[in-house]
Every structure is written in C-alpha cells, then in structure tokens.
Amino acid sequence: MNKKELFNLMSNFNSNLATKERQAPLRVGVVGLGPVGTLSVKLAIRGGFEVVGYDRDSCRVNEFKFNNRTERKLLVSDNPECLADANIVLVAIRLDFDESGNIELEPLQNVARMLNALPSMQRLIVLESTAPPGVTRRFAKEWLQSARNDEFLVAHCPERLKVGDTEDDLLRVPRLVGGLCEESTQLTCQFLEHLGVRPVPVSAPEISELSKLLENVFLTVGIGLMGEVTRISHALSLNANEVAQAASSKPEGYFPFWPGAGIGGHCLPNDLRILRQIAVDTGVAAPLLDGVSNSIELMTPAVIDRLGILLEEHGLCFKNARIWIIGVGFKVGSSDLAHSPAYDLVRGLRRKSALPIYSDSNNKYFEIDDVSVERVPPETFPEGVVAAVVLAGDPSINLNVLDERIPVILDVGGAKSMPGNSSKMQVL
Which residue ranges traverse the bilayer (predicted)? Predict the structure, then answer.
C-alpha cells in the first residue's frame, strides 16, 4: 500500500460510512492503554474503525479486555504483532525523567523498533505524547528505519485530556496537528474530522510540541501565582478563597485559579521541568519559570502553617496529634498518586511530630519514604482525631460527620467532592 492508496482508503471509509455501505478495511492501532490510550480506543471505535490496542503490560491488557469485553471491533494484546495490519497507529505513551534528570526517550525508541519490525505497508503514525520540540522529528528521521521512511507518515497530535474527561468532552476540544510533511498533516486532520474532532494544523511538529508545553505550564504558572496570593492573604488575615472567587467574576482577561496544596499528576510537574530544561539547553534566561517552580514548592508548607494556626486557636498543637487527610490523589476526582501534594503534606506533618492518617476509597495503600501511612476505611470514623485536612476529598465521607466530632477542619479544595456541609470548616 502506498500513500495514495492510504488516502483513498481513508476517503472510501468516510464515504462508505456516510452511505451506510460496507466499510473499507481500515484499522487503527493504539500503543499504550493508559488514560490517553483508553479514550483514543473508545473514540476510534465510536468512529466505526476496527481497533487493536497494544500494551506491554499483560495485567493492564487483561483488565482492559475485561472492561471492554462487549466491544466487537476491538482486539487487545501484549503482543506487538497485533499491530501488523494497522493503517493508523496512535502512540499514547508517557515520557518521564531518568535518574539524571533528563527526559527519557527510550519508550519512544522502543515503539520505533516495534514499528520497524512490523510487515511492510504504508502507515500513518500519530504521536499523542507530550514531548520536547524535535522529538517527533527524531522519531521519524532517526529511530524509524531510514530504508522504510517512505512507508511512514508521521505527525504530532498532542492529547488535551483532563482528569474526568469523557469521550464527549474530548470531541469538544480541538487538537493540534503538526505533521512532518503536508500529507501526514492532511491525513491526520482527515482522521480527526472523521472522529468529530476539529483539527488545528500547524506548520511543523515542533510548533505543536512547544504549544502543548505552553498550555500546561500556563496552568502551572497560574497555580503558583494563586499560591503566592494565598500566602499574602493569610499574612493580611484575608480569606484567599474569597479573593479568588471575587477575581473569577471578571468575564474576560482572567482565568480562575483556587487556593490549593500544590500541583501533581504527571503532566504539570513534568512539563514545567521540560520547559525549564529547554531554556537551559538553549541558553535562554527563564526567571519566571524558575520562580514558579520555587513558588509551587511553598504551597504545601502554607497548608501546614494554616493548619498550625487553626490548631493553636483551639489550644492544640501538632505533637502527637492525629491528623486525618481525606483523599490523597493528586487532585479532586483523581485516584492517581503521581506527584500528589499528599506526599509533602505527610512529610511536613511528620516533621512536626504529628501522626497523619488517611482515608481514600480509591487508594488502599499509601507509603511515603518506605513508611506506610495508616489507612482508615472511609466507612469508619477514626478515633482521637484533632484535625481533618480535606485534600482531594472522598465522596463516600459525609462532611456532617466531621462537623460533629472534629475540632479543626481545613478544606484544601476537596470538600466540593463530598456530600453534606460543615459549619466549622475553614478554607485554605
């Protein structure tokens, strides 16, 4: 199959769907069955494609098979040979840092080796991963076999997934498309349009790569700024949450941020780190990015300081105090512990000689620095607790119960996910 045949196959597929005729044999492969890959699979199935999902983690594959056992157009495997007939391959893998602090590109290199080993045919390869500028080009020009480069059309189309997003949510968000050539950009745009997603073509993959970093670091800058405003509010004895609420009433020219314990997850911490490293590598001074990183580090200590003041107001102190942390995911609505502020919160409380415990319906085990944190099942009320910190929250715990039995309750953002009300709860 050559490029022209791949274009024709896509066009025929669209036409056949529109006329409800027999569909052309167009198959989409998805590499990586994490959160991004999972939704990519669902969107492709919804678009009428035959889909093959690949992940090297056999446990994840088995779980994915069970959760999607009624899907007739889906094949899932931990054997990369399942991608042999895939005309379009979506690469949805996560890039992390190695022990030296450098972005680890080996996962993408492994994907390239895997594609090189597949039977010869024309394929569209779409990288959905967030990556430093230049990585998509290296993937296509260096890691894919040069003798077979004409077989591969490569484009960067970064995911724009938020925690809790559904398939319908994704359809409303435009996607950047940066192809290595006009054909790869055009075909990727055509694929997205078929899914119901509006494509935004850009001139090169480096544009989409840097744009994706800008999007996420913008959020991190806002969170860091809100952290500083929170500390200033505390110094002035003002309610930081009310300050943020008042600012959010401006309809244009302002993006609302709220007091919190810091940033977490994979994207925001890593993308700030990537952009700072790019600045260093290119010799560009980036004092704003450096300052944001420092500001973020002060957010969790601000929570502990605020909690200490509230304890003092009740004649209490940290020493030997049982502090109940409710919800340890990195943000409200997420069970993901990656870079969660809960880690630094527990460390800080331990340094104060407090005894932190936690409840989280989605995380049955929580360990920090090789020491497990005592878990209280959400249906059980812990004894001897003097303060509760509602971090990510837990919808299975009612705030009314806290109000009845705990002297100090501090909401760090998670209370909105919980039923009931608390008259004594303080906000950060």
Answer: none
Q: Report the 10 Å Cβ neighbour count for 184.
A: 23
For residue 389 the two structure tokens come to: 């910190």
Exposed / middle / buried, residue 252 (Cβ in 10 Å: 0-12, 13-18, 19+):
exposed
For residues 179-206, average pLDDT: 96
DSSP label at residue 141: I
**At which residue do the structure tokens 């004894």 appear?**
383
Structure pTM?
0.89
Element (H, E) at 159: none
Q: Which domains does the chain have, with CATH numbers?
A: 3-203 (3.40.50.720), 217-427 (3.40.50.720)
Torsion-angle region of 197 (φ positive above 0: left; ψ -120 to 50: alpha; else: beta)? beta
* pLDDT for residue 18: 44
| Distance of alpha carbon 71 from alpha carbon 217, whole angstroms | 37
**pLDDT (tens digit per residue) in 277-334:** 999 999 999 999 999 999 999 999 999 999 999 999 999 999 999 999 999 999 887 7
d(CA 227, CA 260): 7
Please give the single-letter amino acid code of residue 139. F
What is the spatial distance between Cα 155 and Cα 179, in angstroms, rounded to a whole number? 4
Residues 6+ apart with CB under 8 A from 269: 220, 263, 339
Whether residue 61 has pLDDT greater than 90 = yes
**385 vs 388: CA distance, rounded Å:** 7
340 by Cβ neighbours in 10 Å (0-12 / 13-18 / 19+) ranks as: buried
192, pLDDT greater than 50? yes
Tokens matching residue 262: 């810091």
The full DSSP string for 81-116 is GGGTT-SEEEE-----B-TTS-B--HHHHHHHHHHH
Q: Which of 27, 94, 98, 26 is nearest to 55 (CA)?
A: 94
* 3 state SS of 10: helix
Q: What is the distance between the alpha carbons of residues 50 and 155, in angstroms, rounded to a whole number?
A: 21
Mutual orientation of helices 287-297 and 205-235 as an angle, nearest 10°? 50
Report helix, strand or coil for 233: helix
Which value, to the nearest 10 degrees, does the dihedral of the CA atoms of residues 334, 339, 340, 342 take? 160
Q: Are 341 and 264 in contact (CB under 8 A)?
A: yes
